[in-house]
Amino acid sequence: MFASASLYGLRIQANTALPGLTGATAESSPDIWLNLRATPDWLEALDGTQAKTTFASPDLNEDGQPLFSVAELQCGDYFRLSYCDGVKFFVDRAGIRIWVEWPDTLSLEDISTYLFGPVIGWVLRLRGALCLHASAVAVNGGAIAFVGESGAGKSTTAAGFSQRGHAVLADDVVAIFGPPGSLLVRPSYPELRLWPESVTALSGSDNGRSKPLSTTEKFRLDLRQRGQRFQDEPLPLAAVYILNNEDVTGRNDVRALTHREAMMTLVANTHAGRLLGPPARKQEFELLAALVARVRVCEVSRGTDLAQLPRLCDAILSDLENQSACASFIEAAGA
Question: Where would I find the H helices in 139-277?
């Protein structure tokens, strides 16, 4: 029996229902076919010499094996994404068909951590999207993205905005689709994944939050619960905030980046770009150039004190209001 679900505006047809995803109607043909606990038919006939490793993580596990690696199969028509815990994804170059196999020690919800994050980021890149390591929320009809390295507080900042009534669009991977003149952020899945200390800072306890994933210590915040909102329609990208934990002033300073600074920072925070070939990398640079030319990109000093999260949200909202007022003044002056 097949189940349909929606993710980043794509309809996924899977042979098993996927946890946490919004269901999709079966009126149109699937964008992606997902085969769980399955491998491609041709895989058994493949020998080791026909797999070309194109990337291996420099980070190793206790056995000296890369935590993650990518290989091209069938003369580059397919990719194999391998994790050191035995999880393997097989993806065709068009980003239409996905197979996944995993050991019995892991659950389907564990696999969803990979699928909804790095794997779907890979698939979206194959399908022409610009993918940022970021979270995104809806503010005044536009999408605001929070970009940063692991641990920078992207999901926590999105959760802070969610507590104020702003709908969440995406967590971990923010997918931006062109053309360059119209950059849209597509919604991902209706949950945030937060570290325990973030959950405690936001709600005072971690009661009511499930922790089903053996691959991570994060909690799942269901955005369909009372008091939370999920933005299920795409929105134009309005601003990008780079989160910097070095808040030396304690004021959550916001600084607009030059085009060059913005470009260099965003290049370092794209998803899967360095793992793909020159044509995909060229397309990524074109979309990034369009982004920094059209969208305000700022660095905001966040700090590490989670008790100051409301002040961080205030600083970002104040910056947005100031820019909106400035734009309105300029428009009126030119009328």
Answer: 154-163, 196-203, 259-267
Q: Is the predicted pLDDT of residue 12 greater than 70, yes or no? A: yes
Q: The domain 130-334: what is its CATH number?
A: 3.40.50
**Residue pair 13/30 in contact by the 8 Å Cβ criterion:** yes
Asked if pLDDT for residue 335 goes beyond 50, the answer is: no
In this prediction, residue 89 carries a pLDDT of 97
Beta strand 68-73 pairing with 52-56: antiparallel
Q: What's the pLDDT score for residue 272?
A: 72
Give the largest CA-CA distance in the chain. 70
Is the Cβ–Cβ distance between 93 and 80 less than 8 Å?
Answer: no
Amino acid, res. 245: N
The pTM assigned to this predicted structure is 0.89
Q: Where are the extended beta strands (E) located within the chain?
A: 3-7, 10-14, 22-23, 32-36, 52-56, 68-73, 78-83, 88-92, 97-101, 130-139, 142-147, 168-170, 173-177, 184-185, 191-194, 219-222, 235-244, 254-256, 296-301
212 CB-side CA count, 13 A: 17
Unique residue bearing structure tokens 């590490």: 304
pLDDT at 333: 46
- Give the whole-angstrom CA distance, residue 112 versus residue 114: 5
* All CATH 3.40.50 domain ranges in the chain, comma separated: 130-334
Per-state percent for the chain, helix, strand, coil, to nearest 5: 30, 30, 40
| pLDDT exceeds 90 at position 292 | yes
Query: Mean pLDDT over residues 114-136, rounded?
Result: 92
3-state secondary structure of 202: helix
